[in-house]
Amino acid sequence: MKAVLLALLGSLRAGTRSRAALRLEVLALRHQLAVYRRCPTRPRTNVADRFLWAWLSRTWAGWRNTLVFVQPSTVIAWQRRRFRHHWARLFPSKARQTQAGQGGQDLIRTMSSANPTRGSPRIVGELTKLGIHVAKATVERYMLRPTKKPSSSTWRAFLDNHAKDLVAVDFLVVPRSRPR
User: Fold this and answer.
1) What sign has the CA pseudo-torsion 64, 70, 76, 82?
2) In 3D, which of 146, 142, 147 has the Cα closest to residue 108?
3) pLDDT at position 99, please?
4) Secondary structure (3-state) at 137
5) Sign of the alpha-carbon torsion through 159, 160, 162, 167
6) Cβ atoms of 134 and 127 closer than 8 Å
7) Cα–Cα distance measured from residue 16 to residue 78, given in angstroms and rounded to the nearest whole number
8) Phi and psi for 165 in degrees, rounded to 5?
9) Can you give the C-alpha Rg of the chain in angstroms?
C-alpha cells in the first residue's frame, strides 16, 4: 500500500516538473539499472559512469534524490579527484620532478651540520639557488638532527646551581618573638 501511494505522489509531482528534468531523471534511473545488471552483487563503476554522474551533478539540481548505488559525497569526491589530476597533469610540481640524489643528500647533511640553527625552509632556498629543486619534506628527511646539549632550563640544572641556597633557606629559620 505504501509503495502505491508513493508511486501516485511521484506521478503527481512529475506532472509539475519540466520535461528536461524528467528526461534527466529517466536517464539517471536507467543508468543505475544498467550498472546493477552489469554487477548484481556490488555495483562497480567505471570511468564512463563517473563522468556521467559528474555531468549530471553539474547540470541537474535533483541528482542527489535519484542516486541510489553510491553516496552523493562519492560523486563529489570523484569530481575533486578528477580536478586534482587534471591540474597536476597541466602543471607538474618542480619539487616532484627532481629528487635529491646521493650528492644532494650529502649536501643537505653538510649544510645542516655546518649551520645547526638553519631550518629546512632556508636550506631549500639555498639549494634552489644552486639549481637543486627539492621539497621541504625531503630536506627534513635528510637533515642531521643536532644532539641535545644539557640546557640550563632543566630541573636538574636548577637544583645543581641552587642547592646551597635552598639548604640555607630551608634549614636556617630565625624565630622572632615580636613581629617587625
Assistant:
1) negative
2) 142
3) 61
4) helix
5) positive
6) yes
7) 32
8) -70, -40
9) 35
